[in-house]
Amino acid sequence: MLFSNETIASLINDQFEPVWESVRPVPQVTIDFGIGKIVKRTLHGNVATYACTADGRVIDVLPGIYDPETYEDELNQMVELHHRDLNACRSDPISQFHRAQLTLFADTDSAPAVTTEIVDTLALDTRHNQQVRRRAIHEYLRDWREIKPDEMKPWLYREVLHADLDDPYLGLGHALFANYPFAIEDR
Amino acid sequence: MKALYTLILFVALVGVFLSSLVFANQEPQVVQEPVKRPDIAKKVIEAPLENAIDNDTPGTVDESALVAGFAIPKQRHDMSKSFIERPIEGLIKSVPGLAGDADENPIVEPGKVVWHADFATACAASAESGKPVLLFQLLGQLDHRFT
User: Fold this and answer.
1) pLDDT, tens digit (0-9, with 9 covering 90-100), for A40-63
2) What number of other Cβ atoms are within 10 A of residue B31's Cβ?
3) Which residues on adjacent β-strands are paired with residue A31?
4) Among all residues of chain B, which has the CA nearest to that of A74?
5) pLDDT tens-digit series, residues A13-44
């Protein structure tokens, strides 16, 4: 677990007021091997890390899981962003930050996309989150100045994390049932 | 006299005819020698695999042994099923988290972070400390093993 990492845990404890919450139970897959052995695994877990102000405004979001190094860098950036927001008078550092990040994405559009060269799953997830999902976050927060986590959550899970919380199958229905061979007979 | 000769000839012809009927259905008995077939047993046609594979360089084939095909097989190794396949029970036990009951989802420590109880509490603490709130959302429970 990322929060068992000494560096990450110390950074969070020192620089943040941390809290976690469950958005819904995670779907689980259970395989009974019939010999008294049962395998239990989660099917579709997804996470998001919000940075918020004291009045509950979202200033930034890290969608999905990250490797410790990238996560640490992003957390430090969140601390700096929050500091600027606290000390801002008439400017809007949050919107400015996300607009600036989007210009960086525009400059790196020609960069190679995620490839299978990365065999480390966590590194692959991190890169995907930074290159694809994070961009959607910047576009969203560029225009929303005072949004709360609960207001952002449905969009975040549906559009960015592809785990629609309003869908009982979390968007996995097609994958689960599309190849069922007796679908026509069962109608 | 002439009639006597005719009678003898007739009897002789009848005899020949009857004897041909008796031996007509009997095939000549020919004693055949057993055919000596070439030994085409599988073990002769195929080169023993043990000799075709170069044991010094796994994955290579000794072509000379294949051509010869009659190399003396080496002693076979015991490659029983139980030797090749690991017992499934042991395999499951050897992988962490694979053994256990279906309802088992033990509560674990949610990392080394000291968490606030809820978002409102964290916001209140943020107002005092000046630190940003870090809200970690997830499907499942952070303090459960399977989240």
Assistant:
1) 777 666 899 999 999 999 999 999
2) 4
3) A39
4) B134
5) 999 999 999 998 877 788 888 988 888 777 66
> What residues contact B68, with CB distance under 8 A and at least 6 apart?
B47
**Which of A12, A14, A17, A87 would you mutate first to test chain B, the one with the most B CBs within 10 A?**
A17
Q: Which amino acid is at A62?
A: L
Two structure tokens written together for A76: 């430090």
> ipTM score of the complex?
0.84
Residues on chain B bordering chain A, Cβ-to-Cβ distance under 8 angstroms = 88-89, 92, 98-102, 104-105, 109-119, 121-127, 129-142, 146-147
